Amino acid sequence: MSIATLLLKGKEYDFPVLEGTEGETAIDITSLRAKSGAITLDPGYANTGSCTSAITFIDGEKGILRYRGHAIEDLAGTASFVEVCYLLIHGELPTPAELLVFDDQLTRHSLIHEDMKKFFEGFPPSAHPMAILSAMIASLSAYYSEHDNELNIIRLLSKAKTIVSFAYKKSIGQPFIYPCNALSYTQNFMQMMFAVPAEDYVVSPVVDRALNLLLILHADHEQNCSTSTVRMVGSSGANLFASISAGICALWGPLHGGANQQVIEMLQQIRQSGQSARKFVERAKEKDSGSKLMGFGHRVYKNFDPRATILKNAADQVLAALGMRDPLLDTAMELEQIALSDPYFIERKLYPNVDFYSGILYRAMGIPTNMFTAMFALGRLPGWIAQWKEMVKEPKTKINRPRQLYVGKTAREVESVETRIAATV
Ligand code: SDX
Question: For residue range 120-149, what is the model confidence (pLDDT) as tens digits?
């Protein structure tokens, strides 16, 4: 094993160097503080690995994304979302027999307890679907024992689609539509979203394929902010539902999964204001403008996000297949073209990420903007679950408890009130 040597205050300290299966290098500093008394400092953890994992591999320089070794381009073109759920959680794509059992389980656990429907009465119609989703997912722990992880994984994957669709029905004042066991996972979700008691809803094959694609592309992404949150919360021994609920809250942020909603609002604002795309890009470059080119940039990808490339092509194809046009797609493509030839974006290696085009597809499917991040969460669920399960099974898992560099006041006495008043005059 190779080693890395740190020279600190005249003393040398050796640390093992680990190599991953894709040739990545990591310096194992688990003994750093015990040996040297020092810690590392890495705000945002851009240079810090929190764990080893065998689930997803990303090469940001080459724009590579693989789930359990399978290229995202291969899975996006051929697999179903249910197959990718199985792959991420169990490590292999399911055999036809395994898929039949898994798919049937995801169908049979779609209902939420009738009492949980009452929770929706407490939310105002304007409640953000992510607020409802995180609350309802955490509340599942009130109904199911936290010790039946395998069945809880099925319950979570299956009930999440029902909760997301109920949140949508709640927001538009329509009655909940119950799951239908004769339908596939994605068909079932879409009928719960768009059927009404007066008439059935049959999802078009084009839309069903697009939904599978969207969910697959969002299914996992190694140690991103929300997945790290799931691991952080789970490392304390918190149950699966509580850990995933925390991940949902982390995903909600506009710098993370909330960006897909922000992208559409940005595109609409550009079109409604009559402002040129170029003028908007110029503003996005100004630090104090308060505006960014949402859907652009990534902590890991310093090349094209392969998911954005797939989504851009899919948006074009799905709109054409549905005989639809969306002027926001034209604006998005114009922004991309301007940014990709602008030195500011080129120097900083800022490319479209998964959120830049996903909203165009959601819109084409009739899904409203405020539901976009909940759709991201529905897709990310198998990844969060797989990462949580890997952490729970890892014998070396310890509670996550980072250190800090203290820069506050050093030890001092409590002064009398008089002294403190005197110091202010
Ligand atoms: C997701 O981690 C994951 O894997 C996440 C995700 C997943 O699947 O889980 O891929 C999903 O969250 C995608 C990202 C969605 N967020 C956005 O689209 C929001 C807009 N993007 C940025 O806020 C930003 O690019 C981040 C948050 C995505 C990444 O931020 P970093 O890595 O901390 O980079 P940074 O903010 O330090 O930016 C570096 C430079 C800065 O300029 P300088 O200070 O060097 O002059 O690039 C600039 C930034 O100001 N910059 C942007 C920009 N993104 C970065 N400038 C304008 N517009 C942008 N979008």
Answer: 999 999 999 999 999 999 999 999 988 899
Separation of 107 CA from ligand 1 center, angstroms? 38
- What are the pLDDT digits (tens) for 328-366? 999 999 999 999 999 999 999 999 999 999 999 999 999
Distance in angstroms (rounded) separating the CA atoms of residues 174 and 151: 31
Atom index in ligand 1 nearest the CA of residue 299 equals 32
pTM over 0.90: yes
Ligand 1 in contact with 306 (CB < 6 A)? no
Confirm if 171 and 370 have CB atoms less than 8 A apart: yes
132 and 241 inside one domain: yes
Q: Does one domain contain both 214 and 233?
A: yes
CATH number at residue 86: 1.10.580.10
Asked whether 64 and 71 are in contact (CB, 8 A), the reply is yes
Say yes or no: 335 and 197 in one domain. Answer: no
Domain region containing 25: 2-59
Catalytic-residue membership of 109: no
Residue 86 lies inside a defined structural domain of this protein: yes
Closest to 247 (Cα-Cα) out of 210, 13, 256, 57: 256
Total domain count, the chain: 3
Kindly give, in sequence order, each residue whose CB lies less than 8 Å from that of residue 44, ignoring residues fewer than 6 positions away. 299
The tokens of 151 are what?
């069945």
